[in-house]
Amino acid sequence: MKVIIIGAGIGGTSAGIALQRLGHEVVIYDQMRENKPVGAALSLWSNGVKVLNWLGVGDEVAELGGDMAEMAYLDGHTGETLCRFSLAPVTEKTGQKPYPVARADLQALLMRTFGEENIHLNTKMIGIEDDGQSVTATFADGSTDTADMLIGADGARSLTRAYVQPDGADEIVREYSGYTNFNGLISVDERVGTPTAWTTYVAEGKRAAVMPLAGDRFYFWFDVPQPAGIPYDRSEGKAPLQAAFDGWAPGVQALIEAIDPAVSLNRVEIWDITPFDTWAKGRVAILGDAAHNTAPDIGQGACSALEDAFVLGIAVATNTLSVEDTLRRYQDIRVERAGELVLRARKRGDETHAYDPTATSAWYESLRGNDGTGIIRGIVGNIDGSPINLGASVLD
Question: How far, in Å, are 68, 157, 248 from residue 291 at the CA level?
Fold first, then answer.
């Protein structure tokens, strides 16, 4: 069987590897000119790492991953440690250590593993036609390709998502999550946080955080609640951070000081999409952000795309009635779980960004002296129910 995948991101390349390993001919198209992913790094929780293990790249991912042994919350104004605890229970309960990884590093690994000779960059899809026997993608340069199946891993503004929706369905639109995220990479700086800890400063509905990556680096990110559409020019550099976090703790000031905007600083407004039920039509289906664009508040966006790839691979391997039937079964397995994670992230974002100031103040107070039991349970709860666990609960 020949499969076309639109999108060479984490979801598209992992799905491509899964289908290649089953013996299928797979080709990937992406409109990006080169591997320059949006966002500096991502959280690979145990469910995502397990999919990568299944794809045969577990050792390489472990080398790319940071040693995140602890989690700490600090008062954003004073720098006082509110709580600090080990993340070892996440590994013990799930059977796999989680890793933060640089997004470009992981994407490059997946592209190499898939085979870069089968990835066509700078190629934008503009049309899809399914005649019941095959599916054809048309590209902006006038070229076409035809296959037995097409998977749209074409991101938050997916053309494929619009194609698979029922005739007459309301347009699916992205919704602003209420905050802007600044992120990037710096060298490990112990003035900011412990080299093996995920350290987060909290106050005023804002967050400033670092996670350890391989290569003695920190992935940093800041959340700033604000309206959508505020103008920003890259020449402004870190001025918005200096303004938003003026007077914050010395660790936060050290973090801002360490950022070199010319080397690594991204600014991203955070949007998501309310879950919807239709992921497949005929020989075409969607995967990753195209299917479940989510805010990063529980760190499950990339993991959810990896779960899609796992389920798609299993569905293709085990169902033989037709391509259409296989893609419907893939959809039916994934819709509820992926949608639930989108809503969990949205709920978490409401709590942490002071959209309800009373709830956020209560959360801050709950962190003081916290032993981590409830926080660990929440992290593991997001992993529980993953298809990679084959129906076995990881919660006590």
Answer: 29, 10, 38
Using CA atoms, how far apart are residues 307 and 297, in angstroms rounded to an integer? 18
Integer Cα distance of 138 and 122 in angstroms? 14
CB 31 within 8 A of CB 122: yes
Tell me the sheet residues that pair with 71: 85, 198
What is the signed CA dihedral for 49, 116, 149, 9, rounded to 10 degrees? Answer: 50
CB 224 within 8 A of CB 244: yes
Q: How many CB atoms lie within 10 A of CB 190?
A: 9
H-run or E-run covering 304? helix 301-318
Question: What are the residues facing 27 on neighbouring strands?
Answer: 4
Element (H, E) at 336: helix 323-352
Q: In order of start, what are the domains of the chain with their CATH numbers?
A: 2-174+272-389 (3.50.50.60)
CA distance linking residue 71 with residue 198, whole number of Å: 5
HSE at residue 232, side-chain half, CA atoms within 13 A, is 19
Residue 215 and residue 287 in contact, taking contact as beta carbons nearer than 8 Å = no
SS3 of 72, please? strand
Identify the three-state secondary structure at position 14.
helix
Per-residue model confidence as pLDDT tens for the chain (396 residues): 999 999 999 999 999 999 999 999 999 999 987 666 666 899 999 999 999 999 999 999 999 999 999 999 999 999 999 999 999 999 999 999 999 999 999 999 999 999 999 999 999 999 999 999 999 999 999 999 999 999 999 999 999 999 999 998 899 999 999 999 999 999 999 999 999 999 999 999 999 999 999 999 999 999 999 999 999 999 999 999 999 999 999 999 999 999 999 999 999 999 999 999 999 999 999 999 999 999 999 999 999 999 999 999 999 999 999 999 999 999 999 999 999 999 999 999 999 999 999 999 999 999 999 999 999 999 999 999 999 999 999 997
Q: Report CA torsion sign: 290, 294, 295, 300.
A: negative
